[in-house]
Amino acid sequence: MVCADVSLEDLLAFHIPIDDMAFEAGATIYNMADHANAVYCVRQGAIKLLRYDVSGNQRIVRFLKKGDVVGLDSVFANEQQHTAIALTATQLCRIPMSHFKDFINKHPALQLRLLEKTQEALRETDSWLSELVSNTVPAKVRLARLLLQLRIGDSDRVHRLSLADFGGILGITPETVSRLLSELGDSEILIKAGRGEHGRNYRADIPALTAISQDVGRARQTPKTY
Amino acid sequence: MVCADVSLEDLLAFHIPIDDMAFEAGATIYNMADHANAVYCVRQGAIKLLRYDVSGNQRIVRFLKKGDVVGLDSVFANEQQHTAIALTATQLCRIPMSHFKDFINKHPALQLRLLEKTQEALRETDSWLSELVSNTVPAKVRLARLLLQLRIGDSDRVHRLSLADFGGILGITPETVSRLLSELGDSEILIKAGRGEHGRNYRADIPALTAISQDVGRARQTPKTY
DNA sequence: CGTGTACTTGAGTGGGCTCAAGCAGGGTGG
DNA sequence: CCACCCTGCTTGAGCCCACTCAAGTACACG
Fold this sequence. Notes:
The structure is a homodimer of 226-residue chains. The longest helix of chain A is centred in the middle third of the chain and has 25 residues, at 108-132. With 226 residues, chain A is an alpha+beta fold. In chain A, helix 5 (163-170) packs across helix 6. Chain A has a 4-stranded antiparallel sheet with strand order 1-8-3-6. In chain A, strands 2-7-4-5 form a 4-stranded antiparallel sheet. Chain A has a 3-stranded antiparallel sheet with strand order 9-11-10. Chain A is built from 7 helices and 11 strands. In chain A, a hairpin with a 5-residue loop joins strand 4 and strand 5. The first copy, chain A, has helices at 8-15, 97-106, 108-132, 139-149, 163-170, 174-186, 206-213, and strands at 19-23, 28-30, 38-44, 47-52, 58-64, 69-70, 83-86, 90-96, 157-159, 190-196, 199-204. Chain A folds into 2 domains: 8-117, Sandwich (Jelly Rolls); 134-219, Arc Repressor Mutant, subunit A, CATH 1.10.10. Helix content of chain A is 37%, strand content 25%. At the A-B interface, strand 5 and helix 3 of A face strand 5 and helix 3 of B. The structure holds a DNA duplex (30 and 30 nucleotides).
């Protein structure tokens, strides 16, 4: 870790004039192909980054939580690469791009820090690719994996997204998600718990979910000699 | 672009003792979870980065071509995040991690450059997610998109990977890939051309492929009011 | 010229999609 | 407070694309 003792947000906040902004659940923060004129830090809440397919389907590409930086892509490209939408009530601080660039140039330590953040994002995206969207893995298993990633801290609570959002991440339809979720409900692995402080959520049987998430179904008949 | 006039490779080569290495097609460069003790630059050839699913299926996560940097992830993590395998005969230069880190610290300009490279990778991965692996898009369309990305320069040639590799990227089985490819062959959109200087390849009808790649099939019956 | 690996092709199955209708819940206005 | 709607969720029936398993063919390499 580089400078692990100081949060990126604090670092920036200390030196740069910052606008605080609030968004309610479902609000759009910026759109794909917009001119990028700012970078944001997430203070509170969760955000989804998504892209629209040629055919108009939305595809969720990443999640951002408290402490993450939004819109870093646009430091080099100057168009936004995604549409950003708040999943829960969200508080951001906005850093105008020009200030941000100045600051980067003056503080080399920050560069390493940003590099690290970006690689973190890359690693997360790679996991999504290999674990969440493989059609070769049954949808139920992938849903279980996703639910585990949506776990709130170390508790037995997981964020309850909309069916469309679950589907947008896994690449399946809301109907299928609904069927799978009610299946999990029947086995009492997932119980709808009202809306907590982090928006609505489930109470989940974590061990059971973990078991499902590792289920191989019946993997291809390849004896795998090694 | 930062320092766009000097390739990253040259920059490094100038200052650091470098080992040249050669790999033949199919050779493993490093394995996932290996201790990461070097960074590589691709001089010639193509490389795939892949991960293994819990159930043992391989999933290709990224491509690297001439000029790309391999193993950057491990500057912060110190385990390799992927397995790297040469797709074609490949020439790399190997930079020991300790030297690399020294060099980064001494040359801040390089840091920005690496940040840019990493974001490029991130952007590419996002495209894969949204365009190549969406099960909502028919496999034929996705294959066409992939083939277009495998185009060699501006020519009408595209790299001809193994069926397993095509499948590993798109998340479909080799059998399905075979059927789709022969379908494209029947329409004379794809013609097997022997092995060129970049390994074996197809001669492709680019306009036709482009048309297919944008085909929406019959997108969900959502009137889309906006 | 044989042998293994990659590719092809076929028949049958099934998971997830489509379309469609019904059901909750939570605002809003009367 | 209730009737209303509107959006999000549920559930069902039928279909189709891609998967599985299996057998056969081309091709590269020794």
